[in-house]
Design a protein that fits this description.
6-stranded mixed sheet; 14 helices; 5-stranded mixed sheet; globular; about 30% helix; Metallo-beta-lactamase, Chain A; disordered C terminus; about 525 residues
């Protein structure tokens, strides 16, 4: 959950606004940063600055931005993802402003410049923040990848021109690891080599945001004679937004998941969400035999092209247990480490980068305490002052005396439901008006030629309604939307409403009052690009 606040002379900006999924709690709710301390201190940012489009950097914006109502500055990919999130929460997107890597902006006393760095998502940028005579480099997430597949490598000359900076707020995630992180180009070659050895169907699970990995998997599949299909709404949305920005022009044509059953097993490759064991994700459904488009069988292979996030190990092991029951081969970070690369810098990359920018002080962020301690120890060998290992809620001052911990404000968890619906115009009917309950359903959708596609999460709010299988409803809706040929949202609603009523009548003991709202989303279609 990344949320940093920078203040000078009573004015503030926020950098990133992320969330985490609490898989240790029932129904896997979201945890977002608490704003209690900021409110108590009178901190209200005049702008939200986004470094890149990962969920732990943008995922909470739709929950916290309504409290700020400030401009949001993001690069094109992150802005597209944010617009989809705002739309599905019923929020206007006018505040989201696009800034290209390399450009600068001013807000209050702050001057900021976006400086491109390589990471496991395109358009990741460090921020050079100039204010009050100080220059701070907020690195965000980064690595020095000589072969990133999407986008150019890091330009050392750009960062050498910054030296010296007063403070670097730096990524500690891999500060305990010697050497250099593996390149995405290396992973691409390893994937193609391993895929050529596979028989039967292959499912590769990776983070949807790692577009370089998604592209590498798809190209390797094509060269190995396999057709590619996507599974998982997060994957479909990410690929759709990226295609609209021209990032995946080389990606081979995609096969709809519903057509996979017509292909020979050795011609099938699926790129699926769910590498962290998320129970609702595509890979968990495959492991439990509950996916409507595909069944795995002995001789198939599942590749985890992603590292386990600390804390997710129990859920991932349950997922793998389900896959073993199906007698499929499992390749992961333990038996095939070459099939994944971290998006964060190891020690040699930190030394090279700090040699470029020559920071006077370091504030180590990200990672666990041991990673921050290792980062500080490395900084000490380079003559960089690093007196503080911050924890959530720390207020830290930078002045002529260096870095000082001013105050420590303990942070309470702020938990929100993944299915929480923001009241929308026409959606907030009076509670209790029906003897059999009320069901509010909002569908963010985009036109995809002859049919329609849902963008993002199903927005459902049920009051006094009997138990409803939301996953089954979502799958049914996706199939119906693809089939309905309507010229407008009004026509689509007229066609969909009676079908929805009939489906609910078949699946609920008592039929509630149904309030259906369709939301047009300004997002690219998911179909193949001409």
């Amino acid at each position: 959950m990344n949320l940093g606040l920078y203040g000078h002379d009573g004015e503030w900006i926020a950098v990133d606004c992320g969330m985490m999924i609490r898989q240790d709690l029932p129904d896997s709710p979201l945890q977002v940063p608490s704003l209690d301390t900021a409110v108590a201190l009178g901190i209200a940012p005049s702008a939200l600055i986004i470094t890149h489009g990962h969920e732990d950097h943008i995922g909470a914006a739709a929950w916290l931005w309504p409290k700020w109502q400030c401009p949001v500055h993001a690069t094109p990919l992150a802005a597209g993802l944010l617009r989809a999130k705002f739309t599905e929460r019923g929020l206007a997107t006018d505040a989201i402003q696009v800034i290209d890597p390399g450009e600068a902006l001013e807000t209050g006393p702050f001057t900021l410049r976006y400086l491109p760095l390589t990471h496991s998502i395109p358009e990741s940028c460090a921020l050079l923040i100039a204010v009050g005579g100080y220059r701070v480099l907020h690195t965000g997430d980064w690595k020095l990848d000589p072969e990133p597949l999407i986008g150019p490598p890091v330009k050392g000359s750009l960062f050498r021109a910054l030296a010296p900076v007063d403070l670097v707020v730096g990524d500690s995630t891999n500060a305990t690891l010697p050497g250099h992180s593996r390149s995405e180009g290396e992973v691409a070659r390893a994937l193609e080599h391993r895929l050529s050895q596979c028989t039967g169907r292959v499912v590769v699970s990776c983070f949807a945001s790692n577009l370089a990995r998604v592209l590498a998997i798809a190209l390797a599949a094509e060269r190995c004679g396999r057709r590619v299909s996507l599974m998982g709404r997060a994957m479909e949305r990410m690929v759709g937004v990226a295609r609209g920005l021209g990032y995946l022009d080389d990606m081979p044509p995609l096969v709809p998941a519903s057509d996979l059953g017509y292909l020979p097993p050795d011609e099938v490759l699926v790129i699926a969400t769910g590498s962290q064991g998320e129970p609702r994700a595509a890979l968990s459904r495959l492991a439990n035999g509950r996916h409507h488009s595909l069944e795995l069988s002995p001789g198939d292979t599942v590749i985890f092209s992603a590292k386990a996030i600390p804390g997710n190990e129990p859920q991932i092991e349950r997922l793998k247990h389900g896959l073993r029951r199906l007698d499929v081969a499992i390749w992961d970070e333990f038996n095939h480490p070459e099939l994944h690369a971290s998006g964060h810098p190891a020690q040699e990359e930190l030394r090279i980068f700090y040699g470029w920018i020559k920071p006077k002080h370091l504030l180590p962020v990200h990672g666990e305490p041991q990673h921050q301690r290792a980062h500080r120890a490395l900084a000490d060998t380079l003559g960089i002052q690093a007196p503080v290992s911050p924890v959530n809620g720390d207020l830290i001052r930078l002045d002529v005396d260096g870095l000082t911990l001013e105050a420590r404000h303990p942070q309470r968890p702020c938990i929100v439901s993944q299915n929480a619906v923001t009241p929308l115009p026409g959606l907030a009917a009076e509670r209790g008006s029906s003897r059999h309950g009320i069901l509010h359903l909002a569908l963010p959708i985009a036109s995809t030629g002859p049919g329609w596609t849902r963008i993002g999460r199903l927005m459902l709010d049920a009051h006094r309604v009997s138990a409803l299988d939301e996953d089954a409803l979502a799958d049914w809706l996706d199939e119906r939307l693809e089939e309905l040929h309507a010229e407008s949202l009004a026509e689509l609603r007229v066609a969909l409403q009676p079908m929805l009523t009939a489906w609910l009548a078949d699946h609920l003991r008592q039929l509630p009052d149904i309030h259906l709202q369709l939301l047009a989303v300004e997002a690219p279609a998911f179909g193949d690009k001409d």
